[in-house]
Amino acid sequence: MIESASKFFLKFRFKAKLLERELEQPSAENLKQEPYVQIDRPNTEIKDNQVKAVQNDLPKPESLQWGPLPERTPKLSPVEQLDESYLTSSFFRYAEDQSHRFDNAPLEYVAIGLIVTLASMLGNKVRICPKRFDKTWFEFVNLWGAIVGSPSKKKTPSLKAGIAPLKRLKLKAKGAFNFVINDATYEAACIVAEENPGGILLFRDEISAWLTMLEKPDRAQERAFYLEGFSGGQYEQIRVTRDNVKIDNLTVSLLGGLQPSKLLKMLHSRSDGSNNDGLFERFQLLVFPDHASCYVDKEPDEDAAEKVNLIFSLLSEIGAPESPLTFSFTDDAQALWDSWATEFKQKEVKVDEEQQTVLGKYPALCAKLALIFELVQQAESFEGSQNFKVSEEVTLKALEMAIKWIKFLWSHNRRIHNYGLEHGQDDKTELLLKRLRQIRHEPFTGRDVYHGGPRGLRYASEFEKAADELVRLGCLKRVERTTTNHKKKFWYYKHPELLTKWVV
Fold it and tell me: What domains can be seen in the chain, in order of their start residue?
């Protein structure tokens, strides 16, 4: 058997050698045919001549009319300014005081951190029914918030100032309130959520890295975990080596910072449909504030810090996941809610689909904020002579404050939306801008750019997407011509000031 197998392989090897020799020495029949390269060369020359003939008809660079080069960084649309009417007195004093300590960082940074942190502590222990008759709709108060700002704008210390009251509460309670996670794995987050049925808070200095990680195909389960955690509901993690994790009402709050350049990537990813499952839209408390230019040196407001710490302490004791406190509006607040919700629904249908995904979540957000502000008001007015008890009614004042926040957040959403439209440069556009410095001749073609170009700009499709954006912005002009073989070809011209004002 072994001998026959050996003979077979020797025979196979001999035939392979013969075939190799035939390929090296083609037959006389094959030699009568011209090599492929000789057949194709005349066609290539014809094609080149066709292109050259068209090039002679192209306009000279100096003959083109150009408009002014747009600003490299677009002007930001105006936003509502946060003042004392948006927060209770203690929260406003605390946020203002902390912002002064961080080189006069935006007040919004601290306020967002404070509100989201309090929401995470309340979690699913309290809820609100916005409608008077339909009690099947209720909202827990977990929130997702993010602040946008360039590096060195004090985003991280501002957010940490918002979390500080919870950390002080944790120290006072000797290990309790251990539901804040930073860089935990998905498996670890599940365990923390199981151990804290009231809810968890994910805090990231830079939220973009986390969002990018969730875009990976192998992170689909983790992405589903956080999507479910926003809406609430039962969640179960099946594990082979350990006991399964089962959470009756998964409740997750998120808080982090975001650089403008990273924000653009998120906006592009959303607009091209690559990640349109609504994860990014869940950051409803997303602000992109202006930065003050004045210098402030004031004595720290220790009384405000103590008051906020007391509010957190009082509110930490109310409600329970197994029997949440259920709130409803007072009569005058209910009348305002009905009127506002009706008007808001009419506004929602008039915007584009992308904006509807944001506006559609605002009624639930408004109800959540109204409940949070109501609880802060009640804790703020508590005298401390007896045990703290809450009234399960949301007053008109709290709802009015929440509605102001919706208007405030909508202005920031419009700024972010317009920022994405006006500042359309994605990674490939930036690559094209840098590549254009190496293109010395005009006009040039797409092949001049992507042939031998950098990674990310080596294909015609990649070039065309980036070129379309620069043409739209007025940085390039595109001229179309039809060759003699009836094929369309494009040539491009650079704005005379592009290399000096735009390309870094």
Answer: 56-72+425-501 (1.10.10.10), 84-422 (3.40.50)
